[in-house]
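Justification of computing resources. Each target in the renewal requires a structure prediction run like the one illustrated here; the chain below, 326 residues long, is used simply to show the kind of job we budget for.
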Amino acid sequence: MADLSAERRRTDQAALRSGPMVDLIVIGGGVTGAGIALDAASRGLSVALFEARDLAFGTSRWSSKLIHGGLRYLANGQVSVAWESAVERGHLMGTIAPHLIRALPQVVPVMDDTPLASALLTRAGFAAGDALRALAGTPRENLPGARILSAKKTCRLLPALDRPRVRAGLLAWDGQLEDDARLVVAIARTAAAFGARILTGHRVDQASGTGVLVTDSATGEQFDVRARHVIAAVGVWAESFDPSVQVIPSRGTHVVLRAATLGSPRAAMTVPVPSIHGRYCFVLPRPDGLLLAGITDVEQPGPIADVPPAPIDDIEWILRQLSSAL
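Resulting structure tokens:
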């Protein structure tokens, strides 16, 4: 991987200001933009990536830090998306970033009021997810198979459960990132090693299919860069570059808790949301003594904040869903 140093930044900027047309300009330094830059540069194309803030500044640092195999998509009948997720998870855990991803056990507790149909559906979903894992070529050494747990074992993994009400547990495994932003930086550095010019702190003010007008945030200077192709990998900010693109942003709130609050669980806890088919709330243990709980999925109209706030209603909804099993 290449160092994204200040010296390289100056060299890359000078080359773009005075150099010939590049093959591809990528706008946005999240995981999608960095991945596009790596894909193109590794095929021998000349690439420039511009990011207004820093790598992984936006959505890519607000994730649940899961490298998941698409079970949620499977539950909603999106088989092709679930398959793609399982394949990509296998690549990430086996080849691309095995040093940044660990296997995470996830347990759905079966309580005394859990409908039998719901438990059977979850078990079937886990079995289908395990089949996707196998078909995607991910070995059990990386991700063990799904299975049913006894009530005692379930409570040992999830100490804060309401023990008298626990009947069993349904266990599956998924991938968990050490740090989502670190993955983005690793991808960007690899792209830079293939020759991509990665420029953070460079805001794209105007864009067309043949080039962009860029402002260096450090100096305020503007310059044009021409390209054969331009890709805007800007997620929820897409409409600012092309008004014809209709985006409906959604808000996915997480709550950060101390692991000791829930007895320092050794697995993720996943609780079905009774009123919404295919929706779950989870608590994910982190290696830093914290838990990540979530997640909401609420339409968020209007301007998109760089640092989105977490409404109290979202926080209360998450805690209410999880508390049903505690």
